[in-house]
Design goal:
- The structure is a single chain.
- By secondary structure, the chain is α+β, with helices and mostly antiparallel strands.
- The chain has one helix and three strands.
- It has one helix at residues 53-73; strands at 17-28, 31-43, 49-50.
- It has a three-stranded antiparallel β-sheet, with helices on one face.
- The longest helix is centred in the C-terminal third of the chain and has 21 residues, at 53-73.
- The structure holds zinc ion.
Length: 74
């Protein structure tokens, strides 16, 4: 299966996209959280961080796990 990789920044059309594996800060429904060990793309031109569809799902799953934890603690 061919994996889709992001090579051009959709924001500024720059080709300076860097594939990075590490922590990524996200914001969803006004919750800020950091996802560890996620693959994402960083535009060296405008600083935009992007994730592909596969990792977007991982972020969603991680986020809802964190949300559940927070609810249980409250
Ligand atoms: Zn860019």
């Amino acid at each position: 299966m061919n994996k889709l990789t992001i090579t051009i920044c959709p924001i500024c059309d720059s080709k300076k996209m860097k594939k990075i594996m590490g922590d990524l800060s996200c914001e969803k429904i006004k919750h800020l959280f950091t996802v560890p060990n996620i693959v994402y793309y960083f535009c060296e031109n405008c600083g935009e961080k992007l994730t592909d569809a596969e990792n977007e799902i991982k972020i969603d799953q991680y986020f809802f796990k964190q949300l559940h934890k927070a609810k249980r603690a409250a």
